[in-house]
TrEMBL record:
Residues that, per the record, bind 2-oxoglutarate: N130, Y132, H142, H219, R231, T235, R237
UniProt-listed Gene3D superfamilies: Alpha-ketoglutarate-dependent dioxygenase AlkB-like
Organism in which the protein naturally occurs: Ananas comosus (Pineapple)
InterPro entries in the cross-refs: AlkB-like, AlkB-like_sf, ALKBH2, Oxoglu/Fe-dep_dioxygenase_dom
Record-listed substrate binding positions: F69, G70, R71, D145
Biased composition (Basic and acidic residues): 1-12
Name under which the protein is recorded: DNA oxidative demethylase ALKBH2 isoform X2
């Protein structure tokens, strides 16, 4: 086994190693029209490592300055933005990333195709790539609720390399609204109104957030104290035109 693979041994095999193998797919109803889909074995192990190697080397990663809560800081992960031509500009935390072309990175078109095949009816035209170089790189609590994605964006997130924890937390005003309503909830409703969810996003996995997840929930990839290796994340979104 190469040193690249140390610590990343697959915990389960790929009995049917082809694209779109939805084995292990889980659909989590978050309630109130929000939904998460988790496909742990979206892409076969070796294929995912080929993608990782290419992206780690070829993507023009940057670590920009961003502005959060009135303060400037360096974004705590590398990033790159890809978008189809003619879309409105993306801007977040006071930063407007340069939109690279899909044509410059043919592999990204292949990955996009695989994501579209796994999610019939979906359509993505932009991609935010993130590279977490170790456990101290992270993304803090936020939602991808920029107006250019519309009210119910679908966001498909592929993980390559080191696994990381991904957290979802219901936004506070929703929790207050639910309690204030004073309704008595049945067992199923209580379960679907759980306020936090945690996923371990493994090498080759796909996580999808749908419906009102961005309106009603925050998500984050927290820091990890123990030393970790590099994780590359691809977050596909649809910018409305
Ligand atoms: O790395 C991840 O899994 C999430 C990244 C993310 O939330 C974002 O880029 O908006
Ligand atoms: Mn996000």
């Amino acid at each position: 086994m190469s040193s690249r693979l140390r610590g990343f041994e697959p915990t389960d095999s790929h009995p049917n190693p082809k694209f779109g193998d939805n084995k292990g797919k889980g659909v989590i109803d978050l309630g109130n029209g929000s939904e998460v889909i988790h496909i742990p074995r979206f892409v076969p192990w070796d294929q995912a490592w080929e993608w990782y190697e290419y992206l780690d080397k070829e993507i023009p990663w940057t670590r920009p300055m961003i502005h959060v809560f009135g303060r400037s800081c360096v974004q705590p992960r590398d990033t790159c933005y890809i978008a189809s031509e003619g879309l409105p500009d993306l801007k977040y935390s006071g930063y407007q990333p340069y939109a690279h072309s899909w044509d410059d990175y043919p592999l990204l078109k292949d990955i996009l195709k695989a994501v579209h095949e796994a999610l019939p009816g979906s359509y993505f035209n932009s991609l935010v790539l993130n590279r977490y170089k170790g456990g101290s790189d992270y993304v803090s609590w936020h939602s991808d609720d920029e107006p250019l994605y519309g009210p119910t964006p679908e966001i498909a997130s592929v993980t390559l390399g080191c696994e990381r924890e991904f957290l979802l937390r219901r936004k506070p005003f929703k929790r207050q609204a639910t309690r204030a309503s004073g309704q008595s909830l049945g067992k199923r409703s209580r379960e679907s109104l759980q306020d936090q969810h945690s996923f371990v996003l493994k090498h080759g996995s796909l996580l999808v957030m749908r419906g009102y997840t961005q309106r009603d929930w925050h998500h984050s990839v927290p820091k990890r104290a123990k030393a970790e290796s590099v994780r590359i994340n691809l977050t596909f979104r649809r910018v409305l035109v």
